[in-house]
Every structure is written in structure tokens, then in C-alpha cells.
Amino acid sequence: MLETLIEIAGTTVVAAMATNAWDYTREKVITLFRRDQNEQRLVEALLDHNNSLLAAASDVERARQDVAPLWRLQLKTLLEQHPDAAAEIQVLVDEIQSLLPQRQQNWVQQITARDHGHAYGAMGGDVNVYHAGPAQVRPPNAAASDGTR
Predict the structure, then answer these.
(1) Which of 35, 74, 80, 108 has a beta carbon 3.0–4.6 Å from 7's, enabling a disulfide?
(2) C-alpha to C-alpha distance for 67 and 48, rounded to whole angstroms
(3) Per-residue pLDDT tens for 49-94?
(4) Is the CB of residue 18 less than 8 Å from the CB of residue 60?
(5) Do the Cβ atoms of 23 and 99 come closer than 8 Å?
(6) Neighbours of 59 (CB within 10 A)
(7) Tens digit of pLDDT for each residue in 135-149?
(8) Alpha-carbon Rg of the chain, whole angstroms?
(9) Is the separation of the CB atoms in 72 and 10 below 8 Å?
(10) CA torsion angle for 94, 95, 99, 101 (degrees, to 10)?
(11) 97 touches 105 (CB < 8 A)
């Protein structure tokens, strides 16, 4: 649950960079790190620097992909030190996503299959899987129970 929140929050903060939602996002993220004034100043400088990088990037989406892991790490560290910040981070994500244009809203989906299972996923659509199980394998020249070969 927290890993998903960290993924979504880091991606959402970066999605707001170099957009009209940035000033609001910046202030909210700085406030989120208020628990440690030294860390808060570093976060403020990092936010400004990353936003400048994105604003100057020739491929903004690629730059967002490069910067997002850094913010996931920042938020993960914050949550490790202050687990009580999870609810505040969720509110922040909800507020920022409501400000972003539809195309800037990023979604994270995790699909896991274990023990020889199959996993299927779709974002914004359906997945229909029809599978009857493995075919019966007969050795060569073996007669079927109904007498056919």
C-alpha cells in the first residue's frame, strides 16, 4: 500500500513540474517536509532545480521519467522517518491530480503473477481471457479412451 502511494506521489509531483499547477504543488511539498527545517530547505532547492531542468528540457516527458525516481526516493525516506505523513501525502496527491490537465495525470498499475500464474492488465479498458487449461498430451501411438487416435 505504501509503495503504491510512494510511486503515485513521486510521479504526481514531477507531473506538476513545468505546468500551471507547479506553484501550488511546490508550496505543498515544501510544507510536507516541514518536520526538519534543514531537509525542508534542501527539498525546496531540489524542487526548484528539478522544475528548471524540466522547463528547459527538449523532451519534457523523458525528463519527467528521469526525475521521478528521485522524488519517489525523497517521499519514501520521509515516510520511513515519519509514517504519520502517509495521509498527508495522499491528500497532496489528490489535490495535485485535480489541478493537472488530463494528459498529465499519470497512473501506476502493478500486476503480479506467482506460482506459474498468468497476469493480465489494462489501463482504461477491459481484459477478457478465455483459457480452458493445458491441452491433454498423449504419447505417440497411444489410444484415446474413446478408441480414437
Answers:
(1) 108
(2) 12
(3) 999 999 999 999 899 999 999 999 999 999 999 999 999 999 999 9
(4) yes
(5) no
(6) 9
(7) 677 777 765 555 555
(8) 23
(9) yes
(10) -10
(11) yes
CA distance 128 to 52: 44
CA distance 139 to 137: 7
Tell me how far CA of residue 94 lies from CA of 8, 12, 99, in angstroms.
Answer: 10, 9, 9
- Is 129:28 a contact under the CB 8 Å cutoff? no
Pick from 102, 99, 75, 77: nearest CA to 89: 75
Instruction: Give the Cα separation of 80 and 69 in Å (integer).
Output: 16
Candidates 38, 2, 4; CA nearest to 110 is 4
**Amino acid letter for position 104:** Q
User: Nearest-CA neighbor of 64 among 112, 28, 105?
Assistant: 105
Tell me the three cell numbers of residue 109.
Answer: 498499475
User: Which residue, 10, 1, 148, is CA-closest to 77?
Assistant: 10
One-letter amino acid of 93: V
